[in-house]
Protein backbone atom coordinates (compact mmCIF):
# COMPACT_ATOMS: atom_id res chain seq x y z
CA UNK A 1 0.00 0.00 0.00
CA UNK A 2 1.28 3.43 -0.91
CA UNK A 3 0.92 6.39 1.32
CA UNK A 4 -0.92 9.44 0.16
CA UNK A 5 1.19 12.29 -1.12
CA UNK A 6 -0.20 14.83 1.32
CA UNK A 7 0.61 14.66 5.00
CA UNK A 8 -2.23 14.68 7.46
CA UNK A 9 -2.48 17.20 10.27
CA UNK A 10 -1.60 14.43 12.74
CA UNK A 11 1.57 13.62 10.76
CA UNK A 12 2.59 17.28 10.88
CA UNK A 13 1.93 17.47 14.63
CA UNK A 14 4.06 14.36 15.22
CA UNK A 15 6.91 15.75 13.11
CA UNK A 16 6.77 19.05 14.98
CA UNK A 17 6.76 17.25 18.32
CA UNK A 18 9.82 15.21 17.37
CA UNK A 19 11.64 18.31 16.15
CA UNK A 20 10.92 20.08 19.45
CA UNK A 21 12.09 17.10 21.49
CA UNK A 22 15.37 17.14 19.57
CA UNK A 23 15.81 20.91 20.04
CA UNK A 24 17.10 21.48 23.57
CA UNK A 25 16.95 25.30 23.30
CA UNK A 26 13.28 25.19 22.33
CA UNK A 27 12.53 22.83 25.21
CA UNK A 28 14.28 25.19 27.60
CA UNK A 29 12.23 28.16 26.36
CA UNK A 30 9.00 26.19 26.78
CA UNK A 31 9.98 25.12 30.31
CA UNK A 32 10.83 28.72 31.23
CA UNK A 33 7.46 29.94 29.97
CA UNK A 34 5.65 27.25 31.95
CA UNK A 35 7.61 28.14 35.09
CA UNK A 36 6.75 31.83 34.67
CA UNK A 37 3.08 30.98 34.20
CA UNK A 38 3.04 28.88 37.36
CA UNK A 39 4.78 31.62 39.35
CA UNK A 40 2.14 34.15 38.30
CA UNK A 41 -0.64 31.85 39.46
CA UNK A 42 0.94 31.18 42.86
SSE order and pairing:
Elements: H1 9-22, H2 24-41
Please tell me about this protein's structure.
The chain is mainly α. The protein is 76% helix and 0% strand. The protein is built from two helices and no strands. The chain has helices at 9-22, 24-41. The longest helix is centred in the C-terminal third of the chain and has 18 residues, at 24-41. The radius of gyration is 16 Å and the shape is elongated. The chain starts with 8 loop residues before the first helix and ends with a helix.
List its traits.
42 residues, FbpB family small basic protein, coiled coil, mainly alpha, SenN/SenS, 2 helices
Return residue spans where pLDDT drops below 50 for at least 5 consecutive residues.
none
Number of helices: 2
Give the strand tally: 0
Percentage of residues in DSSP E strands? under 5%
Order of helices and strands: HH
What helical percentage do the residues reach? over 70%
Shape: elongated
Radius of gyration, in Å, reads 16 Å
What value does the average pLDDT take? Answer: 89
How many strands, which pairing sense, and closed or not: the largest β-sheet?
A: none
Distance between the termini: 53 Å
What structural class do helix, strand and pairing data support? mainly alpha
Amino acid sequence: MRRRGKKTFLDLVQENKQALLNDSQALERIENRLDEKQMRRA
